[in-house]
Fold these 2 entries.
Entry 1:
Amino acid sequence: MKIVRFFFIFLIFLNFYNLSYSKDNEILKKKISKNIRCLICQGQSIYDSQSDFAESMKILIEKKLNEGLNEDQVYEFLKKRYGQWITYNPDFNKNTFILWLLPILLFFVGGAIIVRKLIVQKL
Amino acid sequence: MQNRIKLIFISLLLFFCFLILFEALKKSNIYVPDKVLKKSLPKFKSQDLDLKKEISSDELFVDSEFYLLNIWASWCLPCRKEHSILMELSRNPKIKLIGLNYKDKFTNAKKFIDKFGNPYSDNMIDTDGTISIELGAYGIPETFIINKNKKIIKKYIGPLDQNSLNEINIILK
């Protein structure tokens, strides 16, 4: 009897585990689909788009997550097929370094101008 | 003097910005993935349209020097346009034509083949469109030319035409 009870408790825990696992995957799927551009409705993410391509892409992302791929691996998989453009979050490389560094540079230049003005005013 | 330098500097900066934006206007803002991939063909499994049994890509891509993988559907109008080209290519023994039927109804696909002829040695089904994404396709029709080492050597986005037929014939020579 004890063994049966133990078995049932184990089954319940197993269900909870599966539930949380699929919920995690669902959240991750949503996050990834919001970061992937649709090639048919360009300008929309596949999360927002309802084109055939976007619908298939959502199924594929789910499949890949169920296969055990993590978020970065899914992005890598899609980048290999469609190029860097497919993600809304471009990598830091020789084509994108201006995109990443310019805001930081402008921030420091702006800061320097403000500091200089303040010093001049104080003097 | 200092004001003049400032003015020249700002004018140059504005001109530079204008030049970049003006050049960008000429560029198309529609992104198309690279056509020549030179990548290995991904492995996939799917149902055969005629045999209704599961076949893996390893079983399909054997015993030919070149393969042509064509993504098609009965509801796709450009696919009808390129069908005569595929029929012509199917007569060339150097290349094996494999079809990938994309998100289609079985009866409609069958009707299409019966009406226009069957250029394919094998026809696979892609019911949810995921195999096409594995291949790097994003619309139909799309055609891949694959060599015997299972490398994608050429990719055509959109329907094949006389020019693409000539290009493929050059590859096959």
Entry 2:
Amino acid sequence: MDERGQIAIDFLLGISVVLIAIGFTLQFVPGIFISGYGGEEKLGYAAYRTSCILAEDPGWWSDNTSNASGTEWEKHPDKVQRIGLAEDNDVNSRLTETPNTLSKEKLIQFMLIDEDEIVMKLGLFDSVEGTQMNYRYNISFLIDGHPMVIDNYTAVRGDNLPDDSNIAKITRIVLLETGNVSVFDARSLTTDSSFSEHANINFKGPATENLTIQITNFNVSGSGAAFINATLNGSILSASSDYTLLKRPLYGDFRADSGQLLKDDCLRISFNKSLFTSNQEYQIRLNFNNVTFTKQGPLFSTYGDNAKRLYETALLTVEVW
Amino acid sequence: MADLKENTSGQIIILSGFAICLSLIALAILVNQAMITGYYSSNAALEFPKHEIRDITSQTRESSVSIAELALRLNQSNNQSIEDNYRSLFNQYEQQMKTIYTIHGDEVHISLSEMNLTATAMNYSAESTVWVNISYNDGMTYYVSRPEIIEMGT
Amino acid sequence: MDDKAQLHTLEGVAAAILITMTLVIITQSATVITPQHEMMLDVQLEQMAYDALTLLDTAPSSVTSTNLTECVAGWDMNESNIQNNGLPSLDKQLFLLLPGYLYNVDLTYVQNEALVTKNVIVNGDPTEDSVIASRTVMLTNLSVDAAHGAWIIASDEIKVVEVRLTLWQI
């Protein structure tokens, strides 16, 4: 009998067992080659790059037909070329002088923009053999560990974090524009008659954003100085639904604190915009205990006179997987 | 069983198993090597002096404006022109920046190329501008901004 | 009897086990992943340090009570050690911005044509993984007076000071 032909079949079967075993290992040992090699490095870059573009670049838009362009892409969200959130006061220069200071308008447009647009413009994808594979990501703006809410938009984009995969994460400290603020020196705040314990601030409605009043340099006239309450055109406002009160000690941070008021404390009171809906003159009166104001009205301090943008320190986290 | 022992032609499989193992180890070493080069090249990306360049330009812009204010103030008290005061103060800024960056091994040149400073009382006119040349070199990266245009007017 | 037709199963299985074990050992060895991971941590730490300094330098007065320039201008010129903090205003703000991190702060400036470096905030010895971030500020006679600092700067002089932040994680 001719036995030579059988060797081939033995060998074939033996080698197939080996090949099946290799295939099995490659398939089932997690993180072999694919995620260990190309993946992690690219993910780290993607996260770092995304955080840098968002925090340090003002973005760019351009229109081919009219040849117009600039950094104010939030006004032309459909023609955006680059998505960046940094504020910029010169829309024609391609750079911003204020990295890490993020604009509210840009942030809101960032929340509204199309998903595909974000993935394409921020480069959150990888090409594997010519086909586009989108990364999954989560971009959040956090204050005290919670996502911020700006004009009813929760400042989070992307998917929920998975429990079991390699995530590249970059955290940035940024200043986020959250509305506007009017900063007053208590010594120049107006009152009805000199040395009374209240201050009057006028505001011309309607309000489009919450009103935030920040006051420093209190003239504390006795112990137990404190803020009591606020009235709007004579009616007392409720402390939780109508306004919120925060206090910052010298060098400290804003905290909800109704304790004794010191000279160097900074008081921040935010009024709900729904209080100021009609087109009329409003007067806010802040009542204090043992704090006096000397500058006498009428010609009261007005909110609009020194209204500025309000910024808050937040963390921008970019996670990619 | 005896026959099984004597049949040695299957050894070629276990031998090829060894061969594959060796090639896998070689492959793993290569992967590691690639990672380490990746690590070094990304370290190089880390070492790109983005922060230094930004610090120099933003500090120069900020300083140019406050130097202008100081020059105007000095002009009231000493009998030198605003330009002379500005030049003298800017020269100090230039020298000190250069010295501070030298200890990092970076070469920084900041120089005033042109200025147009007109003031009425204590304020500069809207078109007051200075042109500053900035160059930075850390041996790997050379950055130049020529000129950096800084407007004084408020 | 014809034993040539026997499958070389045992050898096949032995080779399979060998290969599987090699692969498992290679992938489990930590060297493949570690440098990447560490690099990301370094990038993150350095970025945080620069972010904190940038923020303190550029933040408008409604956000910080004293910005970086004002903090430095208010320095009493006494070198500090671990017990004695030279710049409490800067320390408190950095503490708020960088929770969970430790940091030292040095100031470097030119004095009589020589460079002087002084510690102002000392929280301990930095570990090997620490990163350094720096930012320059410019002081004038006016800013020092306003912050009640002890710098001696003539009215026609300016002083450039480099704030160097060494940051590490515990």
